[in-house]
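[09:14] KT: can someone run the structure on this one? pasting the chain below
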Amino acid sequence: MSPSSPFAPWPTLGRNLVAILRGVRPDEIDAIADALTDAGFEAIEVPLNSPDALASVARLVARSPKGVLVGAGTVITREEVEAVAGVGGRLIVSPNVDEAVVRTAAKLGLVTMPGVFTPTEAFEALRYGASALKFFPASVLGPRGIGAVRAVLPEGTVMGAVGGITEADFAPLMAVGVSAFGLGTSLYRPGDAAGEVAIRARAAVAAYDAANGRRAA
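[09:31] RB: done, structure tokens below
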């Protein structure tokens, strides 16, 4: 199915792991971002309900190595999409499917991952021009639920799982077609030091590589 609006495809990443830094502060972001990218993460989002989130996104954009996908989560309005784009963010993640959010982001050439739970929401998101689908909360749907929805989706749809996901979920979700994973509290909680995040990030990368049948770098 071809989207009826401009479409920014999900980028080719070495690992489809998205770090969700809900609650992070701008003065913490540099060290935490370094810990994540050093471990092998290539996508980072700062939810907009974090303290001064746009400042954190801007710092991430300036600091992250070339090719790292940086943006914001919990994006729910057109104005927020434009604000994220204004500081250089390229990734728009939402908890829901909002036509204005997805279409505005697509027109700006941004990568989008709106939250879906049902086949109806999934097809709406694709029609609006979503780059990928964020099954949320994935821990509630589980592999069986996500696999059932996947059976009716267009070939090539990029499916992500977010919400209660840990590295133990990688293999069973990959088995039903999930290729991207958003890691939140299993990776970062407000106040965590960069060293703690580094340990969890390396463990997540190793688990992803093992589930994906590849040798860790």
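[09:33] KT: thanks! The chain has one domain: 17-211.
[09:34] RB: yep, looked fine to me
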